[in-house]
Design brief:
By secondary structure, this protein is of the alpha/beta class. Helices cover about 35% and strands about 20% of the residues. The strands form four sheets. Strands 3-2-1-4-5-6-7 form a seven-stranded parallel sheet, sandwiched between helices. A six-stranded mixed sheet has the order 15-14-16-17-18-19. The protein is globular and about 80 Å long.
């Protein structure tokens, strides 16, 4: 068996940032635990960075691993669907020559600098690492990517046999927001990126006491509220604290943020040694993000034994439990109060006693073991469509319903395992997307061009008027023409509007009873295909 990793992310400028560093750290740990790397292969792109220095870096991750460089497309642009299909064809031709089975691991399924695609071969089992859904969560505040490009990536996730998530919070999103089957998902966590360095002085301009704030000029980092909260806190201390912000901000961004507090210091991008020493001398960490896949700065701060003040969001609660001082990231006063408690707490030692267990859980060795266990235990379920399914997304009252669009997203992963699905949207759907409704990936997933079988089904949704936060929905599945003409199924269910992300104000519709698998299973049993 060959274990193949798509490591194109390491050939881009992101190799020393989030996804790139995660990829490298995970592979290094895998190499340390894996005996005999001759069955490991790295897939590279001849159109990205193939310099000697970069190749030496990649080769050193797992000595002995095979490096294969293919002529894969880059820069998705407007032709992202065609680019992915080209990449799929190239990878399929490459792996078709292999006599043994292949486990193919996609390391960066949502990156836009190259085409991430799975080979289309029955001998290849497909896996992907899923980092976060931040662009989805901040969709109403900032469009990072064009909708069709970002949501089109979900087409590859639907092809995967197993999706490895870097936190339970990300896995919950996959299951509860996007409707992926729980058995196709697993959590592997991660570890700290930091490497121990010799103790040195902190960068020029940094003076104690200070709080370290690893951030970036991206909306989900919540810089404005973080600095406003820090300024409220610092005013109680006669301005003696500094807030040291790492990462690169341009001059305009620095001026805008510095206007909120005189205590802000920008270091720009820092080296590992500089970051290590900033943590070593800091009086605490401020981490105020609206959304994250995994909070690496929290692990770094805990590794240095300093107190942590962070947003009260699912992924960070998952990581720290009660070991941090939490706040509402939308409220500067809440941030200030948490910082005040942090610097005055006489019982910090009680929180610090929890640090060892946190650091023991979040290690690259554990993540590598979890990945390999998941790969080895996988029993893929073959996709065997019984026919083409048209799903009509409309509302008899409102003509264009957020409820039905969101419900289809929940059901789509299960339906797509059994049908070639073709959504049909009402005329008002475009207006719906421009409104306040959270979008769906379904309209952007490329449809299959061939019928899997000479059978045609129709699924219609009938949504009753809202009763408070709840609605009743009737699903009617029927077969049209062919040998099973007349087969029908009806499932009635309730959905409820829920707040899925309080800091970002996201609302969604979720099933009240049962889960998407139950709903799809009930429909299939009623038409004799269960």
């Amino acid at each position: 068996m060959t274990l193949a990793f798509d490591v194109q992310i390491l050939q881009t400028a992101a190799f020393d940032r989030g996804m790139g560093r995660y990829t490298a750290s995970l592979l290094q740990a895998l190499g340390a635990a894996h005996r005999g790397a001759s069955d490991i292969e790295f897939i590279l792109n001849k159109n990205l960075d193939v310099s000697r220095e970069r190749m030496r870096y990649i080769r050193g991750l797992i000595p002995g691993a095979k490096l294969t460089t293919l002529d894969l497309p880059v820069d998705l642009g407007e032709n992202h669907i065609a680019q992915r299909e080209e990449a799929r064809n190239i990878l399929s031709r490459h792996f078709s020559a292999y006599r043994s089975k292949v486990d193919f691991v996609m390391m960066a399924p949502f990156f836009v600098g190259f085409a991430s695609a799975f080979p289309d071969l029955p001998t290849v089992r497909k896996h992907a690492i899923v980092y976060d859904f931040i662009p989805y969560r901040i969709w109403h505040k900032q469009r990072i990517f064009p909708d069709d490009m970002y949501f089109g990536h979900f087409g590859e996730l639907l092809r995967a046999d197993m999706l490895f998530c870097i936190s339970q919070a990300v896995r919950n999103d996959l299951v509860h927001i996007f409707g992926f089957e729980p058995e196709r998902t697993a959590t592997i966590d991660g570890g700290s990126f930091e490497v121990k360095a010799p103790k040195k002085k902190v960068p020029a301009g940094v003076k104690r006491p200070y709080l370290i704030y690893p951030s970036a000029p991206i909306i989900h980092k919540n810089n404005h509220n973080a600095i406003r909260g820090f300024e409220l806190f610092n005013a109680k201390h006669a301005g003696k604290y500094q807030l040291v912000i790492t990462s690169s901000f341009n001059q305009q961004q620095q001026q805008e943020l510095a206007a909120l507090s005189d205590g802000v210091v920008f270091t720009g991008n820092v080296t590992n040694d500089e970051l290590y020493n900033l943590y070593e001398h800091a009086d605490g960490l401020l981490f105020a993000s609206y959304a994250e896949g995994l909070g690496m700065p929290i692990l770094e701060a805990i590794g240095h034994g300093i107190p942590v003040a962070c947003s009260n969001i699912p992924v960070l609660r998952e990581m720290v439990g009660t070991a941090a001082y939490v706040f509402s990231p939308t409220k500067p006063r809440s941030i200030a109060d948490a910082l005040q408690t942090m610097v005055e707490d006489d019982h910090f030692a009680d929180k610090k006693r929890q640090y060892a267990a946190i650091l023991q859980k979040y290690t690259w060795e554990r993540s590598a073991k979890a990945l390999m266990s998941g790969v080895k235990a996988l029993r893929p379920v073959a996709r065997k469509p019984i026919g083409r399914l048209r799903v009509y997304v409309y509302d008899s009252v409102n003509r264009s319903s957020a409820v039905e669009s969101r419900l289809l997203q929940l059901l789509y992963a299960g339906l797509s395992r059994r049908f070639d699905v073709e959504p049909v949207y009402a005329d008002g759907f475009a207006r719906l997307l421009r409104g306040k409704s959270q979008p769906s990936y379904v309209p952007h997933v490329p449809a299959t061009e061939e019928d899997a079988a000479d059978r045609h089904f129709v699924l219609r949704m009938a949504t009753a008027p809202a009763i408070g936060r709840s609605r009743k929905v009737a699903l009617k599945l029927s077969e049209e023409g062919g040998r099973g003409s007349g087969n029908q199924a009806t499932v009635r269910l309730r959905v409820r509007r829920v707040d899925i992300d309080a800091p970002l104000g996201l609302r969604d519709w979720q099933l009240v009873d049962g889960n998407p698998n139950d709903v799809v299973g009930a429909l299939m049993r009623q038409i004799g295909e269960g």
